[in-house]
Specification:
Layout lengths: L4 E2 L20 H14 L4 E3 L9 E5 L11 H8 L2 E13 L3 E7 L2 E10 L2 E7 L5 E7 H14 L10 H15 L9 E2 L6
Parallel strand pairs: 1-9
Antiparallel strand pairs: 2-3, 3-4, 4-7, 5-6, 7-8
Length: about 190
């Protein structure tokens, strides 16, 4: 089942997600629905707040990035297999000199901006079987994780922009929250006059 993606301006995107346990209702179905919704929108990640749930859950499938010719064979291999569920994730450490990458977000269609992030992170999370894992991610895998992790912290990529960039996109963001946007997937708009 494909769900509408919550648009910029909805308060759920600003909430810090609550931790969940293995008794969370219909978790297996929720994960499957989130993946289906992500693929339907041609996304590489989707966090629970983006479907209206303020919980610490997100899914990632970064394999579309594996076709990037600028990547090393090692990074390409990592991205090909980077299809995971992250529950109750935490970033334990961020390392390295920040690097820039042009990011977008399913909740903020038609806006892409350069965002600076650390290249290497150490993370802790539980998978869909609630098995605890600790990993080091780098490059695009780290970046996609950081973007989705921000969602469960109530942070959007637009928060990381300079005040000038924020002023330049302010009207576009207002239009998104009012439903004045044409996305290729279903969306839920917070300020749509019915």
């Amino acid at each position: 089942m494909v769900l509408p993606i919550v648009a910029y301006g909805d308060p759920v995107l600003r909430k810090v997600g609550k931790e969940i346990d293995k008794d969370y209702p219909n978790l297996t179905e929720l994960i499957a629905t989130m993946k289906e919704t992500m693929y339907n929108a041609s996304g590489v990640g989707l966090a629970a707040p983006q479907i209206g749930k303020d919980i610490r859950l997100f899914v990632i499938d970064a394999s579309p990035f594996a076709g990037d010719e600028d990547l090393s064979d090692d990074e390409r291999k990592v991205l090909e297999g980077f299809n995971r569920v992250f529950i109750n994730a935490k970033i334990l450490e961020e390392e390295g000199e920040e690097w820039v990458f042009n990011e977008g977000c399913l909740s903020i269609p038609d806006i892409r901006e350069d965002v600076w992030r650390k290249p290497t992170i150490t993370i802790e999370y539980q998978d869909e079987n609630f098995e605890k894992k600790t990993e080091v991610l780098s490059g695009l895998a780290a970046r996609v994780f950081q973007h989705e992790y921000d969602h469960i912290e109530g942070v959007l990529f637009t928060d990381k922009l300079s005040s000038l960039k924020k002023r330049l996109i302010k009207k576009k963001l207002e239009n998104i929250s009012k439903g004045k946007i044409n996305a290729d997937y279903r969306m839920r708009f917070p300020n749509l006059k019915r």
